[in-house]
Amino acid sequence: MEPPNVHPSLSESERFAALCRIGAALMSEHDEERLLHLIAQTAADLTGAEIAAFTLRPMNEQGELLVPVEGNLFHLAAVVGVTKEQEELFRRMPLGGEGLLAPIFRYKVPVRVEDVFQLMHPNPVDSTQARRVARDTAYAFAHGHVPSEDLHAIGVPPGHPIIRSFLGAPLLDREGEVRGGLLLGHTTPGQFTSMDEEILMGLASQAAVAVENARLYHIMRMQSQEIQAIFESIADGVTLVDQHGQIIRENQSAQQLRQQLEGHIQGRQALEALIQASARSAFEGMAEHDIPLTMIDEKHEYREFVVNASPLRQSILPTTDGYRKLFGRYDEHHPIAEVVVVWHDVTETRRLLRERLIHAETEARRSLLQRILDELPSSVYLVHGHDARLILSNHAAKALWGADWPYEQPMIEFLQQNAIQIFHSDGRPLPLDQLTTLRAVQYNVSIYQYQEIIRHPDGSTLPVLVNAIALNPEQFPLHFSQSATSPYESAALVMHQDVSAMKEAEALKDDFIAIAAHELRNPLAVLQGFAQLLQAQSVPVIGGVLTLDQQESLEGIHQAARRLGDLMDDLLDVTRLQAGRLHLHPEPTDLVTLVNRVVKRFQLTARHHQCLVDAQSAVLVVSIDVPRVEQVLTNILTNAVKYSPQSEYVQITLWEDQEHKCAIVSVKDNGIGIPAQEQARIFGRFVRAENACAYGIHGTGLGLYLSREFIERHDGRIWFQSVEGQGTTFFISIPLYSEDEEGEDRVDD
């Protein structure tokens, strides 16, 4: 490629104008690459150089030099007047304080050579000696001991353009350190004059300042971008407000929150308190620190903020101390220019703090509850969920079970894992789905005074009295579980009381009752027989036949004897139940027919009440001991009539529960009802409601106890719904008959 045309010489006025233009350009150009290329091109234009190169010394972003001036450690930053191939060669060439460049880079003085060829050593020597000679003459030249004609050139690598005239000047920073060099070349000897040298020195001085400014501009822009990135990444809202209350600048968090608040009236009021009010206080010299603010957003949810407002005073302009004061500083004695408002959304933080506080209080209360429970002699534990998972238990519970029940383990899994069995009070195995604890959590019902027998793996048994209190899940939300289940699971507080001593006393009492009942049956039978005989024969007595009063007395004797007989039968049934000697003889029976028969017979004696039967199914076949179920139905009907003296109707309804495959009978009265505080124990032995006694209604308190025992021995259920003063409805559920059932008698073992 042919070398570029030599620029024609410029007049002094043209050079001055060019220097003015380059001076203005150097002050306005901030891109370092374009700036360096402009400097090199201007140097070539002003001096007529064919080649102009700009070299720089490596430095870090803070402007600190990284390498010494010795060695070939400078790099080419810009070059004009060469081909692309030559430019690539220059960029690979080592540049530094050697040969003709040594005075420039090492000793900070310009070098102007008329003819480089004349400075080449006439006799070839080794490169080491040539460099040593070149360094010595460079030192002598820099200190004025020798002219430039005595300098020594060490040659150029192959491919370097031919240079005859050479002119170079150092770039010095404000500390006088060499930052680089501006190097000119020409293929013609004697091309550069002293005027060119002065121009190049002036241009190098301007270039040094321009390069420094470009570097500072680059640093400022990088810092500005960093500050902007930091500003935008702040999670808090940051807003800059001027003296007129106008928002000058805000980050993304502040913008989003402001736009949300501007959407409704309450939000705009909150925005006024967040920004404008706090800014006004700061402009008055009263900085706002950690001011709490609570507002309601458009979703009607509370949001809490902490607001800080600080004044920003006018900046002092930087002095000649250097670029490190370029950004200025703020002085408290200068007027306030702006206010920065920082609003920190603490809604979530305070919610978490409140949750932690609640958790700590809950744990403290739980710890206190645990200590109280551990002091109780009876077993107490709390379970939740349909599978009765353990939440907490006391020491007595561990002693009761003879094993440690792990937290959150389902009850059935715990019992099976530890080979623990549960039996009815009469010794019959209790199905797992009928455990008192499971019934409480599955049906959300409270069960009181229910007797069970716990059999441990070693064969030992423990009779207990169980009270399972169902807790309303909405009133007692439990959050102890770590699982993702609903916080409104059913729960129950279960207590077990060891009744071994009570059982022994009951056994003695039952023995006495059995003996007494058995011994009284014969005299009562004789008494009842004679009363019936007298009534039947109406034998004459002194003065004639029986008078009306005497007949009524005989009827009273007969009824009293019959009631005593029924009482003896009930007492004997109780003793049989307790002793496990109650025999059941189940057989397939149509429950609808049985109920109609019992109601028809009962209606003969219930003269003041009408019993209405509504059978929603024509046939309901169940496997039952007919006499025992008749006894239950008679007990329930008797209570319905007895405890509703002011009512005229008793409603009996039968239907099939297809989901649970059972027949259900309900008996509803409109009588005095059962007080709520006594409903839990109404199925107990010898238990009668207080309002029944207040109304003067007599009874033994055994009917409901026997009814429950008989129904449960048929794998059924009996329960009730009652409101005092409004009446009671009893429900009896019995499984429907299946042909797969064996028609064997059931005997309590």
From TrEMBL:
Residues 515-738 form the Histidine kinase domain. The keyword Phosphoprotein applies. The keyword Kinase applies. CDD domains: HATPase, HisKA. Keywords: Kinase, Phosphoprotein, Transferase, Two-component regulatory system. Its EC number is 2.7.13.3. GO terms for molecular function: phosphorelay sensor kinase activity. It catalyses: ATP + protein L-histidine = ADP + protein N-phospho-L-histidine. It holds the Pfam family HATPase_c. Gene3D superfamilies: 1.10.287.130, 3.30.450.40, Histidine kinase-like ATPase, C-terminal domain, PAS domain. It is an enzyme of class 2 (transferase). It comes from the Bacteria. This is histidine kinase.
